[in-house]
Every structure is written in structure tokens, then in C-alpha cells.
Amino acid sequence: MKKSVSMLLVLTIAATLTACGSKNNENTGETNAGTVNNTGTANNGTTNNAPAEDAELVPEEGATLLVWESKEERPFVEKMMKEFTEKYGVEVKMEELGAGDQVAKLTTDGPAGIGADVVLFPHDNLGKAVAAGLVLPNDEYGDLAVSENSEVAVQAVTYDGVLYGYPRAVETYAMFYNKDLIATPPTTFDEVKEFAKTFNDSKNNKYAFMWDIGNFYFSYPFLATTGGFVYGKDGQDKSEIGLNNAGAVEGATYFASLKKEVLPLKSGDVTYDIKKGLFTGGTLAMNIDGPWAIGDIKKSGINFGAAPIPSINGKSSVSFSGVKAWYVNSYTKYPNAAKLFARFASTKEAQLDDFSLTGAIPANKEATQDPKIQNDEIVKAFVEQFKNSQPMPSIPEMGNVWMPIGASLSDIWNEGKDPKASLDNAVKQIQDANAAAK
């Protein structure tokens, strides 16, 4: 890395063997390591998980590592592999595998002894990985991960009170706007309504504001901003569902008002690709999308900016967020080397390298204050929105939420169904699905 943390290798071989996490002592490492208390600091009982500043893990003799990552991240990962090998003498190889496919592949390849030593996947897959015993806790570097990265990111890679991930990048969605159509981005949805009155022209496909209406991922702000939530205890308690509470109903009622006042179309007519085409084509003034869309928008040549999502009923909009992090395969033959690489490739300096090479938004708090980030208007908007986001629940029961709530939102929007009754019905479906899975 451009700036590597210089630390002396002073652990003895005996200490190394004691620190070595293996499949056989995994339960011991999970007792209280890496838990996070309500002050945002690690609660590790009597054990300090972070190595001293002048000490770190020593790679096992003869260790080699395999890393899984997507093709798009190869420039960054290759840089990390080269620098790690130069510093520690451990050979690292990369195998291309999409982040969303890694847990499924690790389920079979891990026990077979052919899985990657270090993997990376979105945090909402963490519950499945932990339930299957596929990843080790972030015990050696837990304190550092907690202190250096945003609280939202740390929460996302923590499952059932145990920190597993080494946060590396974050993502959420924000509002893109066409500067030639609206010079100053609105900060409230009431302002969006006022703008739509004079701008909308359906005959010419001119619309003030769009988002993927029927997709719960993008419509979550309309339930969460006013007090709704998916599952209790930061998304970990499936017995408590907050998608039909008073706050969620208030938000869904406001959501319904936007059809008449902002976007008079059926939800099926506002697909992701349709709205993206209208925005890049220059007839849509504002569009909710993620940082993955930046490249295509730039290619379109339109004059655009980005800003946090407008507030709802006087409250800052709460979006869903995702966190990508490294994880160590619990079946690895070289847990010390694997943990060391996961730490090495997730420091502040590493995350800034990732941003420079791939555009990934850092999870590290100091990295987000770097001039590279703060001077980039587009990226800064996503960083600001992320601060007011909630990580998608990582428990397996999250899979039972998407379809019922998506259908409920479509019914409220398209059919004008009562928000309370529609949300109640969706929550009942989720509860039934959760109960059937026991």
C-alpha cells in the first residue's frame, strides 16, 4: 500500500500457535470476541482482540493464500497481493468470483478444503455464512475494525453480537439530478412536489422524479424514515417486525401521495432500466440510483450532480445500505496469514487505494474525510447518505421480506389500497414464512 502501517514482528512461535484460530477452537473465539456495545466500542470481556501497535500475527511457515474477488476489483486486489507478498513473503493468488456467489460456493468448497482462504461478500449474506460455520470471527483485529470504520459498517458485519468482517467498502443509493433541468437539488419531498407541478409533461416523457417504486430496496426510505424497520435489534430479531407500525404506515401514506403529485405512472412503468434511460436521455430531472450507475451517467454526457435523498415529513431520509468486507474461511489451513491479509487489505490506506482504482466508497471514517472523497461532489453525496442509512438485515429470514413488501407497495401505489391494511397483510405473510422455516 502507499502508506503501510509499520509494525515489528515480535510474537514468539509459541504465541503464534496460541493465537492461531482453527476450526477446532472456533467456539472459544466466538464467546465474546468482537461484540459491540451501545457506545460503538468493542466489548471483548477481559481479552483485547487488537494486537499491540508493535506486534502482529506471524504468518504460518510455508503459508500461501487464495482470495476470491470479482473481475471489477482485480486492479485493487492485485496491488494488495503484490504488496502483501513483498512485506510478509506469503504468496497470494486471486480467483475471480462475484461477491454474491461466494457464500454458496464456500458452502461446498470450504469443507472440501479447496475454498479461498479470504473471501468477500455483501453483509446480507453473513447470516447464512455464520449458520453454516464458514467464517471465523474477526478476533485479532476487532478493536481496530470498530474504531476505524463507521458504526453502520461495523454493525453490518456483526452477527449475533460477534464481529466477523473486516469492512472495506460501503454502498447505498442517493439522488442524481440533471443540473440543466434543476439547478439546485431539493432537500425535501415537499419541494419535489412543487417542482413536479411545473415540470412534468407525460406526452414528452418529462418527469421530475423517479425511483424503482415496486422494489423494496429503493422504496425503504418511505417506511424507515418515519419510524418503520424490518426486524428488531438492528435487524437481528426476526420475532419483531416493524414494517406495519405507526411510523411505517405514516411513511406509506406519504408514499401514496407521490403518485398524484409527482409520478402519475404505474409502478410497472417505472422499471430500473426505463428510469435510467430517461435520466441519461435528459428528460428526467431526478433519479434515485446507486454509485454503480455513475459510469454510465458520465458516458451519457449530461450535466449531473448528486445529493442525499430529500427528507420526508421533516425527517432525513433513511436508506438501505450494504457493506462489503473481507472474511476468513473457517477451514483455512493458514488462519494467521489469512487474518493478516484481511487486515492488510482493509486499512485506511487500502480503502483509499480501492477508491482510486475502482471507485469503491470507503468504510473507514478517516478515509471518507480524505480530499479525494471530499472534493468529489458525487461520491461525497453517497458518503453523506450512508451516514443516515441502515444496513440490510443479515439474518436468513430477510429472504422472506422482499416479495410481500414489494407487492404491498405496488398495491398501495397502483390500486390505492389502504396502507395499514396492505402492510398488515404483508407482515402476516412474512411471519408465516418465518414460522414455516423453523
Automatic annotation (TrEMBL):
GO terms for cellular component: ATP-binding cassette (ABC) transporter complex, substrate-binding subunit-containing. Its main location: membrane. It is a lipid-anchor. Residues 1-19 form the signal peptide. One of its GO terms (molecular function) is maltose binding. It is found in: Cell membrane. Residues 21-52 have a biased composition (Low complexity). GO terms for biological process: maltodextrin transmembrane transport; maltose transport. Keywords: Cell membrane, Lipoprotein, Membrane, Signal, Sugar transport, Transport. It comes from the Bacteria. Residues 21-56 are annotated as: Disordered. SUPFAM superfamilies: Periplasmic binding protein-like II (SSF53850). InterPro entries: Maltose/Cyclodextrin-bd, SBP. Belongs to the bacterial solute-binding protein 1 family. This is Maltodextrin-binding protein. It comes from Paenibacillus montanisoli.
